[in-house]
Amino acid sequence: MNIDPDSLSPAQLVCFELATAYSADEVAEKLRVDERTVRSWIAKGELRAVNLSRDRGSRKPRLRVLEAEVERFLEARSTHPDVKPLRRRRRVPPPVERFV
Q1: Which domain holds residue 61?
Q2: Rounded Cα–Cα distance for residues 90 and 42 (Å)
Q3: Residue 87 falls within a domain, yes or no?
Q4: What is this structure's pTM?
Q5: Element at 23 (helix H, strand E)
Q6: Does residue 95 have a pLDDT over 70?
Q7: What CA–CA distance (Å, rounded) separates 33 from 73?
Q8: Which of 29, 43, 56, 100 gives 20 to 30 Å between its CA and that of 92?
Q9: Is residue 57 part of a domain?
Q10: Distances (CA, A) of 86 to 16, 27, 83, 89
Q11: Any idea what the CATH number is for the domain that residue 30 is in?
């Protein structure tokens, strides 16, 4: 069976074992954060995941994050050395008028 990976959805890539996918717990362990943080990123849309559960509206989704998506997420969140951090301007208080 000859499978063209470009014609498959992310879920099909995982099912055919053509892409490495991690559970939310594995991503959390890899990034050294709590699993709830990873699930929060997924819920906000910051980290894309594939639901591999049998039913689309399942109470307990089987979320898997593709390895390429983890790399994209890390690249988007990484700091680049060529970009200077913004300096905050100090607020100058207004001059005080004195009446004598």
Answers
A1: 8-77
A2: 37
A3: no
A4: 0.62
A5: strand 21-23
A6: yes
A7: 14
A8: 100
A9: yes
A10: 46, 31, 9, 9
A11: 1.10.10
Q: Looking at the domain assignment, is residue 96 inside a domain?
A: no
CA-CA-CA-CA torsion for 58, 11, 34, 74, nearest 10 degrees?
Answer: -150
Q: What percent of the residues of the chain are helix, what percent strand, and what percent coil, each to the nearest 5?
A: 40, 10, 55
- Confidence class for position 44, pLDDT limits 50, 70, 90: very high
What tokens does 93 get? 């208080």
Give the per-residue SS3 of 38-81.
Answer: HHHHHHHCCCCCEECCCCCCCCCCCEEEEHHHHHHHHHHHCCCC
- Residues near 37 by beta carbon (within 8 Å), at least 6 away in sequence: 28
Does some domain include residue 1?
no
Inter-CA distances, 92 with 8, 42, 95, Å: 58, 42, 9
pLDDT tops 90 at residue 40: yes
